[in-house]
Design brief:
With 417 residues, the chain is of the alpha/beta class. It folds into 3 domains: 159 residues, 2-Layer Sandwich (Beta Polymerase, domain 2); 141 residues, Rossmann fold, CATH 3.40.50; 78 residues, no CATH class. Helix content is 53%, strand content 13%. The protein has 14 helices and 10 strands. The strands form 2 sheets. A 6-stranded parallel β-sheet has the order 7-6-5-8-9-10, with helices on both faces. Strands 2-3-1-4 form a 4-stranded antiparallel β-sheet, sandwiched between helices. α9 links the parallel β6 and β7. α4 packs across α6. The two termini are 26 Å apart.
């Protein structure tokens, strides 16, 4: 079977999601551990600010067993209790395929139509290929998912307007400051999210943008592209002192800023807005208690993008039709892959029994009688084969319940004849 287990902004708040947010090294470690389990054949792990999901193929155990295995490995890695299970959704068969196609088409994103998820899925898929944890089925699944996402964007106006949480963050700044163009802005982090932030600030006409990053040359390059200035990361608090708007999006396991560290460096601006786009969070929640400071995290931006969703609902029905067709196509291909070898084994096994019995009976009958027996045996064999295949398709949900396919496959293997 193909399955997915995961959590997202729809099932868990940021303080839960950040516990299961995985960096590249952690994702690789988890994937390798899961892949080494004899029951899991392929695995891809996707971890973004809004979701952590494990996509897998498991034909040697039931769905309940597969989900339990994955949860155990995940909880062992992050050190969280089983109490967190309630935040995870589980999909299998067509529901799992549909979910991935919806994710890559941004129908599951906080910002409907955002494009960043495409690059995130490509990165997760490429990492899985590099680590050797994907095979024929998930390779085809992810390639078809990316094709579906492209088709949705080509045939709808889904990607127009707000296209990322970064955009929503800038819109929130525009709501709070009438003269946004003149505000002193500090951007912490020069990754993909940080670049989207500065790009949208630049479009708004902002002129006083400073960028800091652990890797200095990345900060310098990003700032230069948008007429900003770079700040060495060790001088971060100088930037905090000057800024009226602070947007942070760096990868970290613990907050890099908290109230105790920030307060001595505030310079008396009547209002300071801090936006934390990191998961795990970059800014400790206690900063919200500082007088004159407004703190927002990724979940707080949902109300900003609500209007964007309403405008784009008309496109969702079109996208759903495209996705349904592509899910059916992939499911048909997968069923063929699952059932064809077993069907051939059933045909071969039944025919072999027929031939063996005919051979044993031939010496006791005339040629005319043997020809009649041969014809009759063929008719009985064909009916038996058709009945067995029909039952197999019903029991295995047309090949989707691969654990049943495996049992039938074993029953008709040569060693069991």
């Amino acid at each position: 079977m193909i399955g997915i287990i995961g959590l997202s902004h729809k099932s868990a708040s940021v303080h839960i999601r950040e516990k299961f947010a995985l960096d590249k090294a952690e994702s690789a470690k988890l994937a390798k551990s899961i892949f080494d389990n004899k029951y899991i054949e392929e695995v891809v792990i996707l971890s973004t600010c809004n979701r952590t999901e494990i996509y897998f193929k498991a034909d040697k155990c039931c769905s309940t067993g597969a989900f339990s295995i994955l949860l155990r490995y995940l909880h062992d890695l992050v050190g969280e209790s089983d109490e967190m299970h309630k935040h995870f959704y589980r999909f299998q068969h067509d529901d799992a395929i549909r979910h991935l196609f919806r994710v890559v088409s941004s129908l599951e994103s906080m910002v409907l139509g955002e494009y960043q998820i495409v690059s995130q899925i490509k990165e997760a898929f490429n990492q899985a290929k590099e680590n050797g944890t994907v095979g024929k089925v998930l390779k085809r699944l992810f390639n078809k998912a990316l094709e579906t996402g492209k088709l949705v964007r080509t045939n709808t106006a889904m990607s127009t307007g707000a296209f990322s949480v970064s955009y929503a963050a800038v819109e929130k700044c525009s709501e709070q400051f009438e003269n946004l163009q003149d505000k002193k802005i500090l951007l912490i982090g020069a990754g993909e999210t940080g670049e989207l932030v500065i790009k949208n600030l630049y479009k708004k006409g902002c002129k006083n943008i400073m960028v800091t990053n652990r890797t200095r040359n990345k900060a310098e390059e990003l700032a230069a592209r948008y007429n900003g200035k770079s700040l060495p990361f060790h001088d971060l608090m100088l930037g905090i002192h000057e800024a009226e708007i602070i947007v942070s999006s760096v990868a970290c396991k613990e907050p890099i800023l908290d109230a105790g560290r920030i307060m001595p460096h505030l310079n008396g601006h009547p209002r300071v807005m801090m936006i934390d786009l990191g998961v795990p969070r970059n800014i400790h929640p206690d900063v919200a208690g500082i007088n004159g400071v407004s703190l927002l995290n990724v979940d707080d931006l949902e109300e900003v993008v609500a209007g964007n969703k309403e405008k784009k609902q008309a496109y969702v029905s079109v996208a759903e039709v495209i996705i349904a067709e592509k899910v059916a196509d992939f499911s048909d291909w997968l069923s063929t892959q699952n059932l064809s070898p077993v069907i051939q084994k059933i045909i071969a096994a039944v025919n072999q029994v027929n031939l063996n019995e005919l051979a044993a009976a031939k010496k006791f009958h005339t040629e005319e009688e043997f020809q009649f027996m041969e014809k009759y045996g063929k008719q009985v064999s064909d009916k038996l084969v058709n009945a067995l295949i029909k039952s197999m398709k019903t029991i295995s949900d047309n090949g989707r319940k691969t654990e049943y396919v495996k049992v039938i496959n074993d029953l008709f293997s040569p060693s069991n004849e």
